[in-house]
Amino acid sequence: MTRIDPAEAPHLLIVDDDDRIRELIKRYLAREGFRITTAAHAVAARRMLELFDVDLLVLDVMMPGESGFELTHWLRGQPGAKGRIPVLILTARDQPTDRIEGLSLGADDYLAKPFEPQELVLRIGAILRRTGGRSAAPKRLSLGECLFDAERGELFRGEALVRLTEAEAQLLKRLARAPHAPVERHLLGSDGGEAGGRAVDIQVTRLRRKIESDPKNPRYLQTVRGVGYMLAPD
């Protein structure tokens, strides 16, 4: 796939109870430019779907508790955009009856294990082209008493313009490209490495003082532990 800005890359949720397979899929798809969140079972997947906007699910069938088929059926019953999230079934169950069941429940595609990683990438790309992915991020985001104009990189509190440094404006613009989705910490800095990460942390702290009513308990500029940061507008 063509490389794009990581903050704008499609966000995939990988759901598989096999730790080894889940990690292999994650690493391969991350190298292809996707943003990845993982879950080991359906309960965790539902929690991720509440926290983040997702462009596509890659979903195993045979999992403890709720199966992938059951999760697909539940997802298709959800209102709004959540109920339309594309689903790619990825499973060792490769009988025609299994394929028919998955597709009849609302899955967009079905790929049997073992599989070629490149085929997985091509199928994901085809689904995203058909479905169009999520709609474009909004140009203006409501952050409580503040409003951020993502196109202009300007932050307002009421009618007053809040002064942002260039680095703060760029960080906020990047987060605004994927609202309600985590962006890895190292991707938010102007340079890579730990030094860049520390600079991001400082900018986030300063931005919280300008946006949040309680900067120590942020509502809008959230930390996603083990990943980075996420902008959660109203």
Please give the structural blueprint.
Elements (H helix, E strand, L loop, with lengths): L10 E5 L3 H13 L3 E5 L2 H10 L4 E4 L8 H9 L10 E5 L4 H9 L4 E4 L4 H15 L8 E4 L2 E4 L4 E4 L2 E3 L3 H11 L6 E2 L8 H19 L9 E4 L3 E4 L3
Parallel strand pairs: 1-2, 1-3, 3-4, 4-5
Antiparallel strand pairs: 6-7, 7-8, 8-9, 10-12, 11-12
Helix pairs in contact: 6-7
Any idea what the CATH architecture of the largest domain is? 3-Layer(aba) Sandwich
By CATH reckoning, the class of the largest domain would read: Alpha Beta
Query: DSSP helix count?
Result: 7
Order of helices and strands: EHEHEHEHEHEEEEHEHEE
| Count of DSSP strands | 12
Task: Outline the structure in words.
There is one protein chain. The chain is α/β, with parallel strands linked by helices. It has 2 domains: 6-131, Response regulator (Rossmann fold), CATH 3.40.50.2300; 140-231, Winged helix-like DNA-binding domain superfamily/Winged helix DNA-binding domain (Arc Repressor Mutant, subunit A, Orthogonal Bundle), CATH 1.10.10. Helix content is 37%, strand content 21%. It contains 7 helices and 12 strands. It has helices spanning 19-31, 42-51, 68-76, 96-104, 117-131, 166-176, 193-211; strands spanning 11-15, 35-39, 56-59, 87-91, 109-112, 140-143, 146-149, 154-157, 160-162, 183-184, 221-224, 228-231. The strands form 3 sheets. It has a 5-stranded parallel sheet with strand order 2-1-3-4-5, with helices on both faces. The radius of gyration is 19 Å and the shape is elongated. The two termini are 33 Å apart. Mean pLDDT is 85; it is low at 1-5 and 191-195.
